[in-house]
Amino acid sequence: MKLADLISLNYKLLEVLSRLDIGLGFGEGSIADACASHGIDIDSFLLICNEYTFDGYVASSDQLANGSPSDIMKYLHNSHVCYMSKEMTKLETLLQTLLEPTGETQKKMLYKFFHDYKTEVKKHFEYEEDTVFPYIRSLLRGERPDGYSMEKFEENHTNIDEKLGDLKNIVMKYLPECCDPIMRNDALYHIFRLEEDLYRHTLIEDHVLVPMVTILESHE
Amino acid sequence: MNSERKNILLVVPSMLVARGLEAILDSASEFRVSAILSGISSESIIRLKNTGADIIIIDPIIFDYSSRANARSAISQYSDAAIVGLRTVNMDDESWKQYDETINIYDSPPAIVKKLRSALAIHQEAPRSDGDELSAREKEILVCVAKGMLNKEIADQLNLSIYTVITHRKNITRKTGIKTVAGLTVYALLNNLIDYSSVE
Fold first, then answer.
1. Which domains does chain B have, with CATH numbers?
2. Cβ(B103)–Cβ(B17) below 8 Å
3. Are B176 and A169 in contact (CB < 8 Å)?
4. In this structure, are residues A129 and A80 in contact, taking their beta carbons and an 8 Å threshold?
5. For B131-184, how does the pLDDT look when each residue is reduced to its tens digit (9 = 90+)?
6. B6-11 and B31-37 as β-strands: parallel, antiparallel, unpaired?
7. CB 3.0-4.6 Å disulfide test: which of A49, A169, B45, B85 passes with B99?
8. Cα four-point dihedral sign B63, B66, B72, B78
9. What is the residue extent of each domain of chain A?
10. Contact A51, A65 (CB under 8 A)
11. Ramachandran class of B159: left when φ > 0, alpha when ψ lies in -120 to 50, beta otherwise
C-alpha cells in the first residue's frame, strides 16, 4: 500500500508519521519503503496505525509477537514530548487568548485548573518514562529486573482524560458570553482532537505495548 | 380508596414470608402487594422495570455475599420505587443504611405499616434526576464539593444520608458533564455560586 493512500484513508495518521520522524514528500513510496528507510519495524507501524484508526481493533498474537516493543516505545516517547511541548503550549495559548476578556478571578481559576491538569499529565508521562520504559528496556536486554511487572503498570495506569473532558465542557457550556465565539471554537477543536489523540495513545499502551511486554515476560 | 393504594413489589425467596407480608399489608387499606418475585433474574428485571411499584421490599439474601452490600444501588438502576430491606441476614449498619427503611421479621403489623409510610416519605424527599438544570439542592451540594468538603461532611451538614449525597453528586456530573472536583469548582465559580476567596 502506498503511504499516500494510507493518509487519505485516515488523515489523522499524519500525527503518527511525524512522531515516527517520517517526513512528507514521500512521493509514490509504499509503507514498506518508508518503514525500511526510517528503520521502523513494519509490524509495529501497522499495529500503531490500526489501533489509531479502527475502533475496537484487536491485534493478533502473531502481530504482537512480531512487533518491536522498542519502536512502540519510540512512538510513545515522541508522543509524550509532542503533548507536553507542542499540544499543551498550543492549548495554553488558545486559552489565554480566549480568556482575555474575562474577569481576574475567572482567569486565575481557569489557569489554575489548566496548570493542575498539565501537572497531572506530566506526572503520568514521567512515570512511564522513568519506570515503565526502563523496565522494558532491561527486559529487552535479557535482564529480569526484580520488583516490577506489567501487571503493576496496569494497576497504576491512571486516567488522565477526566480533567480534559471537564475543560471541554467548561469551554463549551459555561464560559461567560464575553468570550469570542470563534476563539472558543478554536479551543474546542483543539481539545476534541487532543482528547481523541490521548485516547488512542492509551489504547496503544494498553492493547499493544502491555501484551507485547507480557509476551516478553513469559519468555523469561 | 382502592385506587390510592400504594403498589408493593416483594422480592422475597421465602413464600412463607411473602404470604405473611401480603396478609399483613392487605389488612392495611393503604397498601397492596402487586407482585411477588422469588429472586432477580433477567426476566424478573423486566418486571421490576414495568411493575410501577411505589415500594419494593427486598430480602438481601437473594444477592450473593459479595454483592449484597450494594444490593440497593443494583435495584435502583431498574426502579424509582422506595426500597425497603428485610432484615433476614446480618449485615453491617452501613449496608442497611442504604435502604429507605428496614423491616425486621419480628416487627408487629402496625410497625411494618408505619415503616412503609416512612419509607415513602423519605423517598419523596430523595433526589430525582428530572430535568437538565441543577436543582437548588444540587447547587447547595455543589458549593460544598467546591469548598473541598467530603461526602460524609456534606451529609452531616445538610442532614442527609451519604447515599443521598452520592446520588446528588452523580446527577450533578450527569447534568454538567464535569467529573472532577477541580472542574466542579471552576463551574461553581463561573456560575457565581461561590467566590474565589472561599476556595483559595
1. 2-125 (3.40.50.2300), 136-198 (1.10.10.10)
2. no
3. yes
4. yes
5. 678 888 999 999 999 999 999 999 999 999 998 999 999 999 989 999 999 999
6. parallel
7. B85
8. negative
9. 3-62, 67-219
10. no
11. left
ipTM over 0.90? The verdict is no
Crossing angle of helices A161-169 and A181-204, in 10° steps, is 160
C-alpha cell at A141: 536486554
Q: Which amino acid is at A37?
A: S
How would you classify residue B52: left for phi > 0, otherwise alpha for psi between -120 and 50, otherwise beta? Answer: left
User: How many angstroms separate the CA atoms of A169 and A163, rounded?
Assistant: 10
User: Best mutation site among B142, B178, B200 for testing chain A: the one with the most A CBs within 10 Å?
Assistant: B178
CA distance A90 to chain B (A): 21
A173 to chain B, any CB pair closer than 8 A? The answer is: yes
**Chain A CB contacts of B189 below 8 Å:** 105-106, 109
Burial of residue A218 (number of CB atoms within 10 Å: 0-12, 13-18, 19+): exposed
**DSSP 3-state of B40:** coil
Residue B2: predicted pLDDT: 44
Per-residue confidence in pLDDT tens, chain A, 220 aa: 899 999 999 999 999 999 999 988 888 899 999 999 999 999 999 999 999 998 888 888 888 999 999 999 999 999 999 999 999 999 999 999 999 999 888 899 999 999 999 999 999 999 999 999 999 999 999 888 888 888 888 887 877 889 999 999 999 999 988 889 999 999 999 999 999 999 999 999 999 999 999 988 887 6
E-assigned strand segments in chain B: 6-11, 31-37, 55-58, 82-87, 101-104
Residue A134 to residue A117: CA distance in whole angstroms = 25
Other beta carbons less than 10 A from residue B165's beta carbon: 24
C-beta atoms of B187 and A174 within 8 A:
yes
β-strand partners of B57: B10, B84
The three cell numbers locating residue B163? 447515599
